């Protein structure tokens, strides 16, 4: 299959039901029996996934992550809770979407609920723990979709797309069997990087045998036998949800902030406080640059060994006695033609924080990360 075909936008609106690269073991998702399905080649399976189209779906998604990062005392407090979520733990979300522009995600954690929902004309972001809600009035545009308003870390389709779009000659692709996911028969498509520069050992995508929609994504590290990332449906229906699913009425006593999203050539500009942080394949970064003075992220390299660089990142919080400062104090100091900085590594993630305010991160080996830093523009 050609690169042009692989990079073609999916007909399934994967961004509509936002999900992360969430990650770990989803015991309830898998059943023991392997269903008997007609033989299909990897090329034909990829073609069906890329042309898959459903008018709507709803279900429950379970995600878990174990990236092998050390524990950081105090990191779960208030503003750091999203970072804790994206790097570890298990989470549950209820998701729904209906074409062309209706979507809802409800994340349930620690007896609290966070909701992102849109009916196409307005969007809501609600956090029950803070008793706060933001209402966005979306500009009228026939091609405008509030894609950035929902967290992709709870969408198996969005997570799968990140990997499938990266397939190139450096990847071995094969149909590795069948399985049951959320009670549905699915093919297993396995991606194995040929390069040893990445920390990713393999990625398995479970693809529904009737709708050809990805139902589950499992990321295995190069070392160890436990998943580093898994996100998948525990239950799913392909019936179109009712319009009322996407409406939202804030509970009594909730503080509501009204905002209007200006039109920008048909592209929605969602305020940054509504957009959660995420982990995406081959990069670890927030949806917005770090710090008010940070530049847009730059991607160095291609495919499995790509690295993201953020320049002018605010690193003032890395000094003093804060939890991140404590972590960096234990991290080794490294230097090269790129300069000097601190290196943080785990079984999946490598991050380099340089003295001149640049941050490099990726699902790559430490040597690959430093090689990318040496090639990066100043």
Can you give keywords for this protein?
single chain; 378 residues; mainly beta; outer membrane lipoprotein receptor (LolB), chain A; 2 domains; twelve-stranded mixed sheet; six-stranded antiparallel sheet; 6 helices; 36% strand; disordered N terminus
Can you describe this structure?
This is Outer membrane lipoprotein-sorting protein. The chain is mainly beta. It has helices at 3-7, 42-50, 81-87, 156-164, 323-330, 366-375, and strands spanning 56-66, 88-98, 102-109, 112-118, 122-127, 132-137, 171-181, 184-193, 200-208, 214-221, 229-237, 255-260, 278-280, 283-285, 298-300, 307-310, 333-336, 339-345, 350-354, 359-362. It has two domains: 3-260, outer membrane lipoprotein receptor (LolB), chain A; 282-375, no CATH class. The protein is globular, with a radius of gyration of 21 Å. The chain starts with a helix and ends with a helix. Mean pLDDT is 76; it is low at 1-32, 72-84, 142-150 and 265-293.
**Gyration radius, to the nearest Å?**
21 Å
**Beta-strand fraction estimate:** 35-45%
Number of strands: 20
CATH superfamily caption of the largest domain: Lipoprotein localisation LolA/LolB/LppX
* Proportion of helical residues: 10-25%
- Supply the helix-strand structural class: mainly beta
How many structural units, i.e. domains?
Answer: 2
Low-pLDDT stretches are 1-32, 72-84, 142-150, 265-293
Task: Give me the number of helical elements.
Answer: 6
């Amino acid at each position: 299959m050609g690169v042009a075909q692989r990079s073609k936008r999916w007909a399934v609106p994967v961004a509509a039901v936002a999900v992360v690269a969430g990650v770990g073991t989803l015991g309830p998702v898998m059943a023991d029996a392997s269903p008997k399905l007609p033989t299909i080649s990897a090329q034909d399976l990829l073609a069906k996934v890329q042309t898959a189209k459903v008018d709507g779906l709803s279900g429950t998604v379970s995600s878990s992550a174990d990236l092998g990062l050390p524990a950081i005392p105090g990191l779960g407090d208030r503003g750091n809770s999203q970072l804790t979520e994206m790097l570890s733990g298990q989470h549950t979300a209820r998701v729904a979407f209906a074409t062309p522009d209706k979507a809802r995600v409800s994340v349930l954690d620690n007896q609290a609920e966070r909701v992102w929902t849109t009916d196409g004309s307005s969007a809501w972001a609600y956090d029950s723990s803070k008793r706060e809600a933001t209402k966005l009035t979306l500009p009228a545009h026939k091609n405008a979709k509030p894609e950035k308003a929902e967290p992709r870390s709870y969408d198996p389709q969005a997570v799968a797309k990140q990997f499938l779009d990266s397939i190139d000659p450096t990847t071995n692709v094969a149909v590795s069997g069948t399985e049951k996911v959320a009670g549905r028969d699915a093919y297993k498509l396995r991606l194995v990087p040929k390069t040893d520069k990445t920390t990713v050992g393999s990625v398995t995508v479970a693809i529904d045998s009737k709708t050809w929609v990805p139902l589950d994504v499992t990321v295995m590290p190069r070392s160890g036998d436990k998943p580093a990332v898994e996100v998948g449906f525990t239950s799913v229906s392909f019936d179109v949800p009712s319009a009322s699913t996407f409406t939202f009425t804030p509970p009594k006593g909730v503080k509501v902030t009204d905002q209007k999203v200006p039109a920008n050539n048909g592209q929605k500009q969602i305020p940054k406080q509504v957009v959660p942080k995420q982990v995406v394949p081959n990069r670890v970064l927030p949806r917005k640059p770090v710090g008010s003075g940070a530049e847009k992220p730059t991607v160095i390299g291609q495919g499995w060994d790509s690295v993201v660089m953020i320049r002018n990142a605010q690193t003032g919080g890395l000094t003093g006695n804060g939890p991140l400062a404590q972590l960096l104090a234990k991290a080794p100091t490294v230097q090269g033609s790129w300069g000097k900085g601190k290196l943080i590594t785990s079984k999946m993630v490598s991050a380099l924080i340089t003295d001149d305010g640049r941050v490099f991160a990726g699902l790559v080996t430490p040597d690959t990360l430093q090689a990318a830093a040496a090639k990066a523009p100043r």
